[in-house]
Predict the 3D structure of the following.
Amino acid sequence: MKRMALAAAALVATLAVYAQTTDDEIATMRLAPLDQEREPPRIADVIDSDDRRPRIHPMQPPTIPHKIDNYQVDLRANRCLSCHSRTRVAETRAPMVSVTHYVDRGGIVLAEVSPRRYFCTQCHAPQTDAKLLVENTFEDVADMLSGDRKEE
Ligand code: HEC
Ligand code: HEC
């Protein structure tokens, strides 16, 4: 019973927030209340600046700073590795995939990129100039440690 009352209260609170939000603030892919038609937003452009981006923590797969349109990655070919593999980087000037990409799940370092790291876009994604749907207040741990924190 108590649970149901809590759930009802949560629903009322959500609806109250929804009623106050303007179009711009609604954090859904639709970007408009359900009862309104909206011009479909422009398809966002992929950022192709070639600037490598900082990582938010050491184990983050770095984001891709270039376009990857039509780069084939399947059983027969891996276009990413034609630039990023150990044997190609001298020529292409691309950063080499790190050693973790050569380690299999048993911890053995292989001569070739490990199958579990073969499908690059499982982990690495290009970025677009799309508007953020939801603000976030992420703080880098380095800022936290140095005391240089954002104001609440
Ligand atoms: C034609 C060569 C080429 C191809 C093909 C290519 N890349 Fe790159 N990539 C680069 C270069 C060069 C950089 C360094 C930044 C720059 O100059 O764009 C880079 C940067 C990156 C980075 C950033 C690394 C970091 O430490 O910040 C990632 C991740 C990446 N590429 C992933 C991919 C993936 C995934 C694919 C396939 C879908 C791919 N690349 C295909 C040349 C290539
Ligand atoms: C299972 C997730 C995963 C897959 C699949 C994967 N990566 Fe990564 N990648 C990572 C992570 C995590 C890092 C950062 C830590 C590290 O080096 O392992 C990284 C780092 C990198 C870097 C930066 C290396 C450096 O030393 O700065 C490049 C370039 C890269 N990956 C390219 C690729 C390419 C090309 C492929 C496909 C052949 C690929 N990755 C597949 C997770 C992945």
User: Anything to note?
Assistant: The radius of gyration is 22 Å. The first helix runs from residue 2 to 20. The mean pLDDT is 85. Helices lie at 2-20, 81-84, 89-92, 141-146.
